[in-house]
């Protein structure tokens, strides 16, 4: 992670996912998936190879997609659907660059990072709603 946006994104992911874990309820398992996914991505990514598929990150993203889809199937909600959909797009970004479509590395990286950051918004809303409901009870 050699850019300020990467540091901010990772810090945001840690804060949101830990909040989901601590608040509990329906956001907790999703928070665990996001925390593990972002941490594993940081461990397996190779910053020098942004112009080709990073197999380790593709595997982590694919496992996160399976987990998020399973969580949606078990307990459907709008925010879980959005998160799983964003994860599909992240996995497809790896596939597109692997097919040699000419997608430049910067666009590839931006798509994956941007989707990762935007994916945190529905989880943040779900955490807030769960926290508010628990506090009102």
TL;DR?
The chain is mainly α.
Describe this structure in words.
By secondary structure, the chain is mostly helical. Helices cover 80% and strands 0% of the residues. The protein has helices at residues 4-23, 27-44, 55-74, 78-98, 105-118, 120-136. Helix 2 runs antiparallel to helix 3 (55-74) and helix 3 (55-74) packs antiparallel against helix 4. The termini are far apart. The model has no long low-confidence stretch (mean pLDDT 85).
Map the helices and strands.
Blueprint: H1 4-23, H2 27-44, H3 55-74, H4 78-98, H5 105-118, H6 120-136
Helix pairs in contact: 1-2, 1-6, 2-3, 3-4, 4-5, 4-6
List the uncertain runs: none
Strand-residue fraction? under 5%
Broad shape: elongated
Distance between the termini: 42 Å
In N-to-C order, the SSE pattern is: HHHHHH
Helix content range of the residues, please? over 70%
Number of strands: 0
Structural class: mainly alpha
List keywords for this structure.
single chain; 137 residues; mainly alpha; 80% helix; elongated
């Amino acid at each position: 992670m050699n850019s300020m946006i990467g540091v901010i994104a990772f810090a945001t992911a840690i804060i949101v996912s830990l909040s989901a874990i601590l608040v509990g309820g329906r956001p907790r398992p999703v928070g665990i998936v996001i925390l593990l996914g972002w941490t594993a991505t940081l461990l397996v990514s190779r910053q020098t190879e942004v112009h080709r598929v990073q197999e380790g990150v593709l595997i982590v993203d694919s496992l996160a997609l399976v987990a998020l889809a399973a969580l949606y199937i078990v307990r459907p909600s709008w925010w879980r659907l959005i998160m799983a959909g964003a994860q599909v797009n992240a996995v497809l970004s790896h596939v597109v660059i692997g097919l040699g479509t000419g997608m430049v590395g910067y666009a590839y990286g931006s798509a994956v990072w941007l989707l990762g950051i935007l994916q945190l918004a529905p989880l943040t809303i779900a955490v807030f709603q769960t926290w508010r409901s628990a506090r009102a009870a």
